[in-house]
Every structure is written in structure tokens, then in C-alpha cells.
Known about the structure:
The structure holds three protein chains of three kinds. Chain B is α+β, with helices and mostly antiparallel strands. Chain B has a domain at 7-44: Histone, subunit A. Chain B is 35% helix and 9% strand. The two termini of chain B are 44 Å apart. By secondary structure, chain C is α/β, with parallel strands linked by helices. Chain C has a domain at 3-251: Amidase signature (AS) domain (Amidase signature (AS) enzymes). Chain C has helices at 8-16, 22-40, 48-63, 106-113, 156-163, 180-186, 220-230, 274-289, 302-320, 339-350, 353-366, 371-395, 418-423, 429-433, 463-480; strands spanning 43-46, 75-79, 117-122, 169-174, 189-192, 212-217, 260-264, 293-297, 398-402, 438-445, 451-458. An eleven-stranded mixed sheet of chain C has the order 1-3-2-4-6-5-10-11-9-7-8, sandwiched between helices. In chain C, helix 9 packs across helix 11. Chains in contact: A-B, A-C, B-C. At the B-C interface, helix 1, helix 2 and strand 3 of B face helix 9, helix 10, helix 11 and helix 12 of C. Strand 2 (53-54) of chain A pairs parallel with strand 1 (64-65) of chain B, so a sheet runs across the interface.
Amino acid sequence: xxxxxxxxxxxxxxxxxxxxxxxxxxxxxxxxxxxxxxxxxxxxxxxxxxxxxxxxxxxxxxxxxxxxxxxxxxxxxxxxxxxxxxxxxxxxxxxxxxxxxxxxxxxxxxxxxxxxxxxxxxxxxxxxxxxxxxxxxxxxxxxxxxxxxxxxxxxxxxxxxxxxxxxxxxxxxxxxxxxxxxxxxxxxxxxxxxxxxxxxxxxxxxxxxxxxxxxxxxxxxxxxxxxxxxxxxxxxxxxxxxxxxxxxxxxxxxxxxxxxxxxxxxxxxxxxxxxxxxxxxxxxxxxxxxxxxxxxxxxxxxxxxxxxxxxxxxxxxxxxxxxxxxxxxxxxxxxxxxxxxxxxxxxxxxxxxxxxxxxxxxxxxxxxxxxxxxxxxxxxxxxxxxxxxxxxxxxxxxxxxxxxxxxxxxxxxxxxxxxxxxxxxxxxxxxxxxxxxxxxxxxxxxxxxxxxxxxxxxxxxxxxxxxxxxxxxxxxx
Amino acid sequence: xxxxxxxxxxxxxxxxxxxxxxxxxxxxxxxxxxxxxxxxxxxxxxxxxxxxxxxxxxxxxxxxxxxxxxxxxxxxxxxxxxxxxxxxxxxxxxxxx
Amino acid sequence: xxxxxxxxxxxxxxxxxxxxxxxxxxxxxxxxxxxxxxxxxxxxxxxxxxxxxxxxxxxxxxxxxxxxxxxxxxxxxxxxxxxxxxxxxxxxxxxxxxxxxxxxxxxxxxxxxxxxxxxxxxxxxxxxxxxxxxxxxxxxxxxxxxxxxxxxxxxxxxxxxxxxxxxxxxxxxxxxxxxxxxxxxxxxxxxxxxxxxxxxxxxxxxxxxxxxxxxxxxxxxxxxxxxxxxxxxxxxxxxxxxxxxxxxxxxxxxxxxxxxxxxxxxxxxxxxxxxxxxxxxxxxxxxxxxxxxxxxxxxxxxxxxxxxxxxxxxxxxxxxxxxxxxxxxxxxxxxxxxxxxxxxxxxxxxxxxxxxxxxxxxxxxxxxxxxxxxxxxxxxxxxxxxxxxxxxxxxxxxxxxxxxxxxxxxxxxxxxxxxxxxxxxxxxxxxxxxxxxxxxxxxxxxxxxxxxxxxxxxxxxxxxxxxxxxxxxxxxxxxxx
Lengths: 477, 97, 481
């Protein structure tokens, strides 16, 4: 009988912080600039340049630590991690090894069985990102862009507490949500503002000790993570079953091929010679600093859910979805603050918004329409100034470009015609032009009226209130 | 010489430090490093139990900058010293196979 | 009036008085360089055009009353590890043979603001690693007092340029004695301030926790004047300290009454040249006669400073010098097979022997399995050394001793035995480990006519006491001459 194996997984999650400037210099972190245009002597390793810590980085790191139940290190330091690579301009990365800013935390996740499980967080440390390497096929060389060099990161190192891809995803979702709620990062896997390296080992069920682990890099989506975990689990079990042993190494996942390969090199000694960076002073976290950051902590999802239940009359299902994305929750609350009825706002978010997000692959953090304009749109439908199909049409435009729906409706002449006389005239024309349907209706075929409403709406170019049309038809017939 | 530095150690340190030494230099480096380490071993004579390692000599702490953009586009200057450049980037031997 | 014999304070006064101009001053010193530097090799780069243009500009500002300070219009030489925008900066290394910085070091900016005229960049031990200026890739500098001898190092070019009149004053950097020792060998005044007093932004790092920029000058007055201009709190340097007591010239008073001076017995022991010892003790006597209270005491741990220093400095250097990789600036080897070969060849060809020696040592002491035994141990010993100084300064205002065990050795005698060369740093090195200020003042010469330096060490932030004592000594000696 074949043996049963258990997968043991720990994660190293890198999160790019949402600061305006880099961790050690005043260069912008804005995305998408021309190569090397957001650089200075510090982030390009010019001789004689020196780093100075961006205070916001420390505050975000502590905020994430507090939100993930970590102990905040009261006396922290930066260390240099020495290794040669062209994307690392000083050939050392400023990071934290000996005294990281946060330690001993954990977050709760829901397991597949519906239970609650805590995934421990070993530590969170602050560090600088590397530059970008672009392969140039023509010249058979690589090109280096240092715009990203020095962008602040936190690395969240979990304990080896996860046992399946589902748990890994649940843990990542949890981190993403907490960090988004804090505003510390937008946490986009695809764009690399959240990156997860998977440390994985397998062992026989019931074994006391861990097996040899490998580290898997280059995982750009939840799907890739799931596939990589499955793939690596199989690979390790195959090795063990065939009497070979797992080698502790770093592997790169090729999601297109569905396989990984070892990133080994004779020149890669993996001996980083960490030592405290003499160019940066130690960090002493005072009670006041902690209190200040604590006071600024936002309402997290659990509290928000509870409050929504008490404050707004919307279904639990809606609450789950809306609080599941910080930008949606923000949008919801802001729109309600403009006077819209919560249920109506929720309907717009749960309906059209989610539909278009899915259809157009738009992230919640990239929604562009303002709560004010959504509130205006809701007001327009509530006052029956436009009907629901016109409203949807307007919303689609708003979704692309944050337009003022009032102006738009005005300009495009989309307002419902509420002139009884004009409506009556059109209805009479429709009745005259469709004798068969009129007859069917009179013979008890209720459905026929739907056709007549449709014809009237068509004649009115959609600018009528279907309810009013229905009423008038019934009256005249 | 109490510290005998092996060929492997010199080779290994060469990989770490990205230095390639000739055979003659290697022999010299082995002897130099061995002698230096013998000398440094003198520190072992001191009892440093309970002594905090001092990485920073003065208790200056919490030196921060505000999160405000102060730097603009410096690319032309940046690349002015580059041994090889292309398309506004540094050109290096290919980094992956 | 011979401009090249004048001190900075004298020259700036003469310029202000209209007796000469900044341009004349620059021309005079440039002529002197032209005439003498073939003999001494003080400079790696002389920026004739830049100096004359700057002199012209400064002269106009002086005439307009915009520049009134004691350094306005005075020509200065900068050690070649200070970044100067648009001006070649090599650290006397092949690996930076073509490096033109894109910005100027903060300390240099402070001088320029004070009206300094930059003559050029002075020779040094490669990346400041050495005590003789013989490890320069651009040939050794010779001691102007006797060209068979070294000028000391690593700021040898700066010290020699001051001694030879090839500048009016110079700037150096001191990681383990690199200002004080060459000042001593060349018979000029050199000072290393308290760590954090002068911004390191733009100083190409050797040992970041030890490096400090400081002046080399013809007398104590110039030394205090230049240090006052150099010092500033710089937000770009996290280790820079905000001080409100950097008006160092206020300490130029002849008054040592009651000043408690301690001479460590450990600084007068084995290895110290008799003539040096005699000159130093004679200097102590001068101060005692002027009212200072001079005592002998045991400092302890002196012999541990060198191994602790070389461990820490080499470790930091191994990391600081990683950025020289042939990618962003400087030397790249001609032919290579792939990335790692390019790194190795560029660095092996670009760095000199002593630099490679220290990089290897530093990489080793930080490597896996040795960090605790070597690097951490050295940091603990550093803490003990600092404590020993703290205890000494509880009793004394100033520690007095020699700068170096001997006067300047002959060229070519030092490099063969690195450890013996390192031992020459024994009196200067602990000062850097503890972050303290130290000054080197000429106190006579040996029978060969080579200068001897007196070292005064103060507690952190006590530069003024050092300046006061050094000035008092200097004035007294002047009266006798």
C-alpha cells in the first residue's frame, strides 16, 4: 500500500509598500516611468551616497505587524545582505536579519472544513526592492533599469503552518485584505506588488520532523501558486518514493510549462554575510510611536462586517462581498454618505459593478467612478428621471470614465419623458398600429401587453418609465 | 601559523568577493589571511561575556526622512559613467540562460 | 609677500585687504604645483581651469561683500575619495580611473560655500587602505621633507601638498589615522573630528563606521577654521550629528591652566622610537609648564585595537567595495565570458593588492560560520575599548601621546610586511573605534630631520579642548623659535 504524505508549506511574502518615495531616498515610486528616470545616487549605488530611512515605511511595517498580531521589536536595525547581481546596484541589499521590526505574529484563516486555523508569522522585515532586468535578444545581453531599485518592501515570513494550496490561498487573501485595509499596499500579484515564495516539504503522515524543503519563486497568480504547490509536492514524493532525496534549493516555477527548475550556479554561494548596516542608525520604537500608529489603524473587516449588520439593512451575502475588497467597502460607505439608500448602493456594487469588473478584468482598486457620481445615478433612477435600462447604460460609461451622470443624461437627452400628453399620444399610436396584440390582450392573453410596452418604449427611444407605460396601456385598453 | 587557510577557502572567498586570484596571488593570500587571523585571534584573550556588540558608537537613533519626492529625472547623469548602455539602461552580460 | 608660504587665514585677510586677489593666489599655487609636483606626486588631478574660473567668481563675490569669511578665495586640495561633480575622482584606484561623479560631497559643498577654490584631487592609498600612499595606482607620493621617505597615509597626497606649499590647506579622511599620521610625517597639523561632525555624504566609503573627513593645515588656527567650515548636520547622512558647538575658532585661546592631561603608559612602551618619545614628552612638558596637569596612566586594551579595527574595517570595506563591479561606472575588463567572469576580472584587474587583501579578509570574517567568532567579537572588543576611553575621560580632559611609533619610513620599506605596517597604526586606530576627536601637531623632528607629531585625543564632542591645547602649545613653541 502506498504511503500517505502530508505537505508542509511556509510562505515568504514580499509586499511593495504604497509610499510616494523609495525606502532610502526621495525618488518617486510611481509605476510605469521611462527606464532609469526615477533614480538618484542613492538607489543606483553611486560611490559616496548614503541611505536615510523613509519614516512612512517604518509606520506601514509596524501597522502591518500590529494588524497581524506581531510583537513589535523596540530596538530594530538594518543589515546588509551581500550578493552580486546587476539588479542590485550596491551588490548588497539593505534588509533586516538580526533584529527585524516585527516577530511572533499570526493570522486566522478558514479551513476547507469550515474550521479556524492560525497561521503563524515568524517575522516581518523591511527591505529594498531590486531593479529590473530586461533581456535583450538582439545584443544577447541584459539591460538594467533602476527605477524599482529601492522601492520599499516588507517581507512577511510565515511559520510552516500550511498544509494545502487552499490554506495558502486563504492565508494570502487574508494578508492582502489586512494590508489593503491599512492602505499599506494595493497587493496585486500580477503587477508584482505582492509576491509569494513558497517553501515546501513533504513528510509521511504522522512523522515528527519536517522533510527537506525547497523554495519556489516566480509565482504571479493564485493559480500559479496552486499549480506550483501541486507540482512540487508530486516531484518531492516521486523523489522520495524512488529512493532519492530532496535537495534544499531554490527553484523557479515556469507556469506555462507547469514545471520548475533549480536556480543553481557555481557562482552562487548563498552566503550573504549579513552584518548591521553602519550607514543607518538603529530604530527605537517608543510607546508614543506605537500608540500613534495604533490610533491610526483602520476598522478591519471583522469590525466592519459587524457594523454593517447593525447600521445598514443589506443582506449578509452583500456584506461578505463588499467588505471582501477594501475599495468596494470604501465606495459603499462614501456613496451612502452622499445620501443614497444602502440597499440601492449595494445593488449597484453587487450587480453591475461586479459584472463589469469581471467582464473587463478590472481590479477593485482600479475602479474609477466616484461615490458622488454613483449617488447621483442612484438619485436619478430613484426620482424616475431615467429608467433602469438607461441607468445601466449610463453606468457603463461611468465605469470607463468617471463622468457626472446628471450632465451626461442632460446632454444626451436620456431623461424619461414624464409628459402625460406626449406619452398618451404615442400609446394611442401603438394601439392603432398593433390590432392583433390588442385583440390578444382583450382575449385574456396578459403577455401581449409586454409586447405593446416594448413597442411604446421603442417609439419613445427608451426614454419612458415602463411602469407608467404599462399603466396607461391598461387604462386605454 | 595557527590558522591554515585551505585552497578551498580561498576559492570560496573568491566567489563571495568576486575576485579571481592567480596561483601566486592565491598562495600569498593564504599566507596573508592566515597571519591576519592569527593576529585577530588575539581578541580571544578578552572575556566578552555579557558585552553588547557595538555596531554604532553613539546612541543616535531614529533618523528618518519624510515621504516626499525630492528627486527628479537624473538619467543622463546616471548613465554618463556607464561602461556600456543601451536605451537608457546599463548593458550587462546576460543574466539568465 | 609669498602666497605659498601663507596660511589660509593670512591669505584670505590679504585678499580682503586688496593686497592680492583670489586669482593671483590660485595662480601662485598652481605655479608651485607645476614646479614641484613632479618631485612629490601629491596630485592625481589638477583642475587648473576650474580653479581659475572659481577664483575669478569668488574674487567678484569678495569684492561685492558677499564672501567675507576666512576661507574665501583660498585654494584647497581635496583627497581623491571626495566626490566632486564633473571632476575625476579615482580613490587612487584603477577601478575608478575614469569616474566623474555626478554630485559633490556635502563637506566639499560647505567649503565651496565658504569661498574655497578647489585646485584638484590629491593622491592617497588606494581606497584609503594603507599608511604610506604607496598603494596608489598612480604612483607613490613622496615626503616633501625628504623625498626618500613616504608622506604617510592614506591622506599622504593632502599632507604632502600642504607641506610643499602646493595648496594652502587640504582635506583628508581618517579611518584609522589617515589624517593624523601623514600630518605627523609631513610636519603639518591634521585633525579628525568626532564621528558624525562632518557629513560623509559623498565620501567614498572605506569603513563607514570609522570614516571621518577632516582638515590638514599649516597651523592650528587654519585647522580650527577649516573644521568649522566643514562641520554641518546633514540630513542625507543618517550618522551626521546636530551640534551647536562647531564654532571651533572660538577655542583658539592660549590657556591650558588646570587642563587635565593623561599620558597612557601603553603609548610609550615597546616599539616606540626613542626620539619620537622624547619629542612627545618634551611637548607634554611645555603644556605642563603652561599650567596643565599632566599624569601618566594605564589606558589598557591598546594592543587589541588593531585586530579589532582590521576586522571591522575589512568587513565594512568588503561590503562597501562590492559596488565596484564594472556595470555602472569605472573599469570593466576588456574580455570576459559571462556575468560572473566579468565581475571577477574587472575587480581583480581594477583593485590593487592591499585592497584585495582587505576585501578577502573582510569577506571571510563575515562569512557563514565565522561571523560570531570574528566580526561580532571585534564589535564587542570595540565596546570595551570605548569603555576604557570613557573611564580615562572621567579623569582627564585630554589624552596625549605620539601619533605614530616612528617618523616617516623610507619608500618601499612598508608594504612587504602588512602586519608590521598595521602595527604602525597602534596609537591612532582606537580613536576611530571610539569615534573620538584627535589632532596631530608637529612637535619637533628626529635626528634625520623628519617631523614628529604630537597626538591629542579628546572625549567625543570635545574638539575645542584639543584646539585650545594644540594652539597653546603651538604659540609657545613659536615664541621660542
